[in-house]
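Morning. Coffee machine broken again, so started the prediction first thing and wrote up yesterday's gels while waiting. Chain of 184 residues, entered below exactly as on the submission form.
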Amino acid sequence: MEITIKAGQELSVEAFGAILDLDCKIYGNEILTNQGMALKRFVKFPEGIIAAYTGDVLVGFISFFGVDESVYQRAVSGQEYIDDNLNENEVVPLEKGRDNHILILDLVVDQSFRHQGISKQLHDHLWVYLRQKQNQGFPIARVFCFAITTEGYKSMSNLGGRAIWTRDQITLFELDKELVLGQL
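Came back before lunch.
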């Protein structure tokens, strides 16, 4: 199976609709509570989605955003799960000369395409993007995410993530930035 990766500006608003559909298919409608906010975040930070296709079929995606440092502090200090409560104002462009914080919001692979290396390809493309940004003078201070499934927990642990807290079957992970930025 040949996988094609598309990211950022290569993805249209219509492609984003298919991404939302896949998210709902995997996690159910109760997880995605605010599609309007999801679209606003995408429009504000379009490079924050990397999608995997086989032919014209979306098989998976990873979404991430540059976020204000306060989002990280809120997650750590308040043990708050940040997902659809991440508002448009908290999504920020990466800036040269200041610490940039990256929140990996979603990693979704269609169930019929799992265990075929798609998750690894999506992560690898994210690491390439972050390393390019770092090399262009956009310092990456932190990369963090939440695991809400057993598979997500295993995946983040395998990627060298450090569990900061676990509550209600949700774990906040911080990924070692040296490992992430050195994965090429």
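The mean pLDDT is 85. Going to sketch it on the whiteboard this afternoon.
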